[in-house]
Design a protein that fits this description.
- It is built from three helices and 29 strands.
- By secondary structure, it is mainly beta.
- Strands 16, 17, 18, 19 and 20 form a five-stranded antiparallel β-sheet that branches. Strands 3-2-1-29 form a four-stranded antiparallel β-sheet, with no helix packed on it.
- Strand 19 and strand 20 form a beta hairpin.
């Protein structure tokens, strides 16, 4: 009798496990069958969306894929599936009402009329920057292409619009880039003059000619910031009035020395680089999640949640507020869970709470006043079904 009871009990346990397995997997199947995935014929995607979050697998993942999650005006999510591109990003241009989304072998131009995809023969694996030039209605994307067969190194710029695309190969590694908004991309290129020397930097430009084709040209060798260890352009590059600015860190020629921070100011007209020390950050470790130059100030969001302002004329900085404190975000240690986007007058912060549900908070850029906090529906479920992707970019459609 005891054995019979044990057999029945075992059977019941097996049935319960089977039912649980069925419903767990059925949840994922039902998610796939819901109206959460976007097709290329979908209309009014821009008009009905307020933000896009770019997720992707890492370059070493066995299966590579990317997702562009469109957050609607009523805080629901639809996903665009793509081929994996680590560090992929998006760019929205309001004049054209067009969003550029990139993946490893295409540029996708998204309007309210649908999605136009321009494909390329060469696959890319790591993105660097996307942007827009008004001349020729030109969107662009810069990639870290990598080592070539002859042991050289190369970066690639894909560019164009719904009607025509092209690409330009840039010698060596374009670490960071910015543009003048009209016809020229500026890139900070790192390279090794020889096997026995440290890394060197040069500034190059890629400018649209009368046929709207990009042509590369070297502007200047930057020996003043060459042969330094652990060099990083903390704030990326920023263009204003024929100057290029960046918050730059390094450890001098000693890899184990404390970080040293300075403001780089390159005058394009004079071809002159000025370095202004930022002693207030001495011995600190800063990682900027996003930055934007407005007037004479670079606004940037640090990895630890602080939003700060640096005046490029005086070199003075000021911490304005902390996003984590204002949002009650407590999972900062879980790196890669949150993203920040700074616009002309607002700071946007997307993050998960303890229960896994995602929120998009909006703050006044200069004061930190919270303007809104929206719970995002079904984002948690979509990411649970694609748990090998990481967030790389937040774009606001406004």
């Amino acid at each position: 009798m005891g054995k019979w009871k044990l057999s029945v009990l075992g059977l019941i346990v097996i049935v319960i496990i089977g039912i649980a397995f069925y419903f767990t997997n059925n949840d994922k199947a039902s998610l796939a069958s819901k109206d959460v995935f976007i097709d290329k014929l979908q209309k009014d995607l821009i008009k009905n969306s307020k933000a896009v979050v770019y997720y992707s697998t890492t370059i070493d993942a066995p299966t590579k894929n990317s997702l562009a999650l469109f957050i609607s005006n009523d805080n629901k999510v639809q996903a665009l599936k793509m081929d994996g591109l680590e560090l992929g990003s998006t760019t929205y241009n309001d004049d054209q009402k067009t969003l550029l989304v990139e993946d490893k072998n295409s540029l996708k131009f998204i309007t309210d009329a649908g999605i136009t995809t321009q494909t390329f023969k060469q696959n890319e694996h790591t993105g660097t920057k996307t942007g827009y030039l008004s001349k020729g209605r030109t969107f662009y994307s810069l990639y870290n292409t990598g080592v070539l067969k002859d042991n050289g190194y190369e970066s690639t710029i894909r560019y164009g619009n719904t009607e025509k695309t092209n690409q330009l190969s840039v010698s060596e590694w374009a670490r960071e880039a910015t543009d003048n908004g009209v016809d020229t991309i500026y890139a900070m290129v790192e390279y090794y003059p020889s096997a026995n020397e440290g890394s060197a930097f040069r500034l190059v430009q890629a400018k649209l000619d009368k046929h709207n084709s990009l042509k590369e040209k070297k502007i200047s060798e930057l020996s003043a910031i060459s042969n330094l260890e652990n060099s990083n352009f903390i704030s990326g590059l920023h263009y204003k009035d024929h100057h290029i600015y960046s918050i730059f860190s390094n450890t001098g020629e000693d890899e184990d020395a404390p970080n040293y921070y300075e403001l780089l100011d390159y005058d394009l007209a004079q071809k002159k680089l000025t370095r202004k020390p930022l002693p207030q950050y001495e011995n600190s470790y800063i990682v900027a999640d996003d930055s934007l130059m407005i007037g004479d100030n670079i606004y940037y969001a640090e990895r630890e949640g602080d939003v700060a302002r640096l005046n490029v004329q005086t070199g003075k900085t000021k911490t304005l507020y902390n996003l984590f404190d204002l949002s009650g975000y407590t999972d900062a240690a879980e790196e890669g869970n949150h993203l920040v986007r700074i616009t002309d007058d607002k700071t946007y912060f997307i993050y998960p709470k303890k229960n896994g549900n995602y929120y998009l908070d909006t703050f006044d850029l200069k004061t930190g006043k919270k303007l809104s906090s929206d719970a995002i529906e079904n984002m948690k479920e979509i990411l649970a079904a694609n748990d090998t992707v990481f967030p790389y970019d937040l774009e606001i459609i406004d």
